[in-house]
Prior knowledge:
By secondary structure, the chain is mainly α. Helices cover 67% and strands 2% of the residues. InterPro entries: ABAP1/ARIA (IPR044282), ARM-like (IPR011989), ARM-type_fold (IPR016024), Armadillo (IPR000225), BTB/POZ_dom (IPR000210), SKP1/BTB/POZ_sf (IPR011333).
Amino acid sequence: MAANRRSLKRKLELDLVALESDGGKSPRLLQTSPPSSRDFSAIIRSHVDLLNSPCSTYVHDRAALYRSLHALSDLAQKEEKVDDIVKCGVIPAVVRHLEVPIDNDCVCGPYNFEVEKKCAMILGLLAIKPEHQNLIVNSGALPYIVDLLTRHKTSSITPGYIGLLRRVADAITSLAHENTTIKNLVRTQGGIPPLVELLEFNDINVQKAAAAALRTLAFKNDDNKNQIVECNALPTLVLMLRSEDPTVHYEAVGVIGNLVHSSPNIKKEVLLAGALQAVIGLLSSSCLESQREAALLLGQFASTDTDCKVHIAQRGAIQPLVGMLKSSDSQLKEMSAFALGRLAQDSHNQAGIAYHGGIEPLIDLLGSKIAFIQHNAAFALYGLVDNMDNIADVIQAGGFQKLQDGSFIAQATRECVAKTLTRLEEKTQGRVLKHLLYLMRFAEKAIQRRVVLALAHLCPIDDCRTIFIENNGLELLLELLGSSNLKQARVASLALHKLATRAISVTLVDVAPSSPTHQECLGKHGVNNPKLSDVTFLVEGKRFYAHRVCLVKSDIFRAMFDGGYREREAKDIEIPNIKWDVFELMMRYIYTGTADVSLDIAQDLLKAADQYLLEGLKRLCENAISQGITVENVALMYQMSDTFNATSLKHSCIMFVLDQFDKLSSKPWYGYLVCSIVPYIRKFFSTLLGKPSSADS
């Protein structure tokens, strides 16, 4: 082993040449070519052998150690090599060299803390996996690391030691990353108090490294949070927030953010320590990361109580937060929307956010492909529409359409949007409705359209006639429906369908003309019964026995028997162009007042009912035919309704066309169909919205 160690040392002699050429000030190394993959494990093991061999504190021994550690640290920076390095036993070999030698010549020489610094650096690089983190701790590294943090109390503060403190704090950050067990061990082995002390160390890089370690230790660990606060870290962290160095206030705001997360008591202590104004100041930082952390922290502060929400707004946070909504950085948009969402749940802040232009960018963020951004924007808008003064602004900015038609990723967002739409509907009355009506009449065309589309879904049904008939709202919707812009036509179609559905649901009577109530005559036993029959019809060559006393309920039959027609005296009357089963079912309706109309026979029966002016039977036929309307036949069904004056069927066709825009709009005949039905849509709504509602009654 001694021979091998001497051989390794001879290979490293060139390091001393570089060191001496630098006057002994710092250990510079000559560049060496990278090892081949074939020799990689052998090279690692040769370094491990050297680290494991007995050594002294003499400069030449320390030089050999340093050279091996330097090579290992270079290799450890390649993440794909880390597993191989660990398998070769590097971790326990490195840990044994964390202990600072007592020899003053070594401490004060050219390798002043350099070996220990490289050891800490290597351990931090290897701690990228939980199993590596645990192996490092199980190898006994933590006591040495904590001891190194406290050496500044007894050792001379040299550049080498300052660098060592940074590397040790960095190693704690890597070891404790997402590892609850190690976070607890750092606390129980006394690592938190010296890290808090280092926040005031006379070197800015050490301060940042200590803050980064505390940030990691505080994340989702209540015991560590409490100890950090008990060690009086908050005053120093607040001062660091005000640093002109972006890298300093970034680490400080990160620590505070992790301390207050899910910890209401610590949140109060942080506010008492004077952090609020300093955090608001970071919204204007040149450091993007600090801006993100500050926005997130303000959102957490705003969750505390109403007073805190008001204080945040009063101290000028809203304007920079609104500006961040327009950032190209997605995380910054997410955090600012989060903060504004919490602030918007207070009535004092809702008008302020709108005043500073927050509504439009929040509406734009509803279209984000990032779930958290969508949700935060939706939650902010939910708060804003609680203020009646914001309703018209949200609607004229297109907010209703975005909420109504948006594709939202998370279920929680969809639920929030549904609550927002409900809140909009509840608020659309009184002065809000008057404001919207004013915009619909006098604003520019684009805003008029947005308003009328929203009102079709939101306005009280008792105000529909005022809005859509008396103030031209229906014409605006019909204009959009006939637009060559499919998007505009689609939203108009859906709005008209919604308006009709809402109106029909509260209208006392059908919009179609009412049909007379048909009374039973002789009943089902009289149908085609020769007993007492005084008239016979010839249908498809077969006799159908009937009774004039029942037939006179049809105006056509009454005219036939009472007028000057030849059928008046005829015993057998021929019925052309009607099939036997159709005629038989028509007669069953005349005799019984009812008929079981199937879809197969409904169209022929409708023609017969129209011919003999049997309005009640027509309605039964229309209802049956309406059940069979499809994308392919709706145009024919509408034509049929027009031919036979089938008002109820016509209404059903109109409702189908309005509801099925997405399927119908691709048909080549769709544009012609819409043009042909627009006049009747106008008549349909004029009739529908003019009828009394249940509320009026």
